[in-house]
Design brief:
By secondary structure, the chain is α+β, with helices and mostly antiparallel strands. It has helices at about 25-35, 80-90, 110-125, 170-175, 195-205, 220-230, 245-255, 295-320, 350-355, 420-440, 450-455; strands at about 15-20, 40-45, 60-65, 105, 125-130, 130-140, 140-150, 155-165, 180, 185, 190-195, 235, 265, 270-275, 280-285, 290, 330, 340-345, 350, 365-370, 385-390, 400, 410. The chain has eleven helices and 23 strands. Strands 1, 2, 5, 6, 7, 8 and 22 form a seven-stranded mixed β-sheet that branches. A five-stranded antiparallel β-sheet has the order 12-14-15-11-17. The protein has a three-stranded antiparallel β-sheet with strand order 10-16-13. Helix 1 (about 25-35) packs parallel to helix 10 (about 420-440). The structure holds flavin-adenine dinucleotide (FAD).
Length: about 475
């Protein structure tokens, strides 16, 4: 590819922060709130016009219930719990979600935006929307400042410490940190309105063979039915679509294409999420775009294809799917949701075995559960997995920490990418950054005991 050299430019310094956070997804908001509550002057930059990232712009308005282990132990507190309780109070999610029989916590993305904005305001975080990080100014082993592009022109922020919660390692990459790019597997999510969810649940109950108990977060049909009737939440497991005869028949006959355009596949996945807080509205997760989401040409083709594809899926659902006869397409996500694009090469790489076995780490900043991919029924871990600080930091730059579970140093990549994992990572990263800023030390040198004491006071579940 041909290149050109762009001229140097003088950029105004908009703010001087103790902690500057890039990205206002769930991870970045938790990092910012944690840093500000720990006493740091905190500035958060976000390229979109609202917070939430994948959970709002990506429309992934359902939190997998990694709060609870297979045995029913609640292992997450802190900001993840505050966020979820805020959603319930805002009328955006159903209460009583901390149960092992409930795999997902579906919610209203508009309520998510309001709750996140409230948390940021209450903590005193300066939040700058419409601000895309474009440059990192590195001085020796440290990032000295970042430059963002905004509609009114570029600006700089200086900071003692930085949190990269972009989900894509944008700051780490710009600062030359060791990292690994990973191909993405993305989905354009959409919502249907006026769905008769009760009729869909009745249909599943009458067609046991159509329900896959081992897809996604393994859940019995009995729990799925009970979740809707007693608790007002519904989840059709992602990738269980082919068990449903009308989907399999439509794929076999070609009425529903197996692929669409140049990039879309897995149109049969049919993950669905709904709750009574948003009556009749169903989030649909049913396509996959494989490729590199950091390649602007690839991503643009997928965004365009996705909008056309959604019409095909919506028409299929209305024509054939139980409960959808009177439904209509409500909206599509603002952007395709990327599951992961890369991982940091951190001081420690958290493995699935370490995580699943609940290995203790002296610098653990929190814990969550995950699907146990080694168990045939794909239930959650029997015990909580611990997250060490060292999988969020790299050798250099020494004043940047990862605030997104999507891009932490884990094997496999994205081990902590569930929304709960991202919030736990964010809170740990923001707290560590605030302590490092106060002491003027590299973030990896924060005393783990001090950090854990702070997190415990903030309600994070550590053991
Ligand atoms: C299709 C799909 C389905 C999923 N299903 C589930 C599920 O069922 N349950 C579950 O718990 N999780 C699910 N996930 C995972 C989960 O939603 C995400 O991993 C999580 O929300 C990521 O949060 P985050 O804050 O770490 O990153 P993000 O949400 O990606 O937030 C990053 C933020 O940074 C901003 N940003 C990025 N680059 C820049 C830049 N250069 N400058 C300024 N701002 C920037 C972005 O706009 C965004 O707001 C799913 C993800 C996808 C994509």
């Amino acid at each position: 590819m041909e290149t050109l050299v762009t001229p140097a430019r003088e950029v105004p310094i908009l703010a001087q922060a103790d902690v500057a956070v890039v990205g206002a997804g769930l991870g970045g908001v938790c990092a910012s709130v944690a840093a500000a509550r720990a006493g740091a002057r905190t500035v958060l930059v976000e390229r979109n016009a609202f917070p939430g990232g994948v959970a709002t712009a990506g429309l992934m308005c359902s939190v997998t219930n990694y709060l609870v282990t297979r045995t029913g132990q609640v292992v997450v507190g802190g900001l993840a719990s505050e966020f979820l309780e805020g959603l319930v109070a805002e009328g955006g999610a159903m209460p009583d979600y901390a149960r092992t029989g409930q795999p997902q916590i579906p919610n209203d993305p508009e309520a998510t935006k309001r709750v996140l904005i409230g948390l940021l305001a209450e903590a005193g975080v300066t939040t700058l929307y419409g601000s895309l990080l474009s440059q990192a100014l590195v001085d020796g082993e440290q990032v000295r400042a970042i430059v963002c592009e905004a509609k009114g022109g570029p600006f700089a922020l200086t900071g003692a410490q930085f949190v990269d919660a972009s989900g894509d390692l944008d700051l780490f990459r710009l600062a030359g940190a060791r990292h690994e790019r990973v191909g993405s597997f993305s989905t354009l999510l959409f919502r249907m309105a006026n769905v008769d969810i009760g009729a869909l649940v009745d249909w599943l109950e009458a067609h046991l063979e159509s329900y896959d108990e081992t897809a996604d977060v393994g859940t019995s049909l009995q729990d799925t039915v009970r979740n809707w009737r007693e608790y007002g939440v519904f989840h059709l497991p992602h990738y269980a679509g082919q068990r449903i005869p009308m989907v399999a028949d439509a794929i076999a006959s070609g009425d529903l294409p197996a692929r669409f355009g140049h990039h879309a596949q897995d149109l049969w996945a049919m993950g669905m999420y709904a709750c009574r807080a948003k009556p009749g509205t169903v989030l649909v997760n049913s396509c996959a775009f494989a490729g590199d989401d950091l390649d602007v040409r690839h991503k643009s083709e997928c965004e365009a294809e996705g909008r056309l594809l959604v019409r095909v899926l919506a028409d299929f659902l209305v024509a054939r799917f139980p409960g959808f006869a009177d439904a209509y397409l409500l909206d599509t996500a603002t952007e395709i949701g990327s599951r992961r694009t890369g991982r940091l090469c951190g001081l420690h790489t958290l493995t699935a075995d370490e995580y699943r076995s609940g290995q203790a780490f002296p610098d653990a900043i929190g814990r969550t559960t995950e699907i146990d991919h080694t168990s045939p029924d794909r239930r959650r871990y029997a015990q909580a997995g611990q997250i060490p600080l060292r999988c969020l930091v790299s050798e250099r730059p020494v004043n940047v920490i990862c605030g997104s579970g999507k891009s932490a140093s884990t094997d496999p990549c994205g081990l902590l990418r569930g929304q709960v994992g991202c919030m736990v990572v964010g809170q740990g990263a923001g707290t560590a950054a605030a302590l490092a800023a106060a002491e003027g030390i590299p973030v990896a040198q924060v005393d783990p005991e001090r950090l854990r004491a702070h997190l415990a006071v903030a309600g994070v579940s550590l053991a």
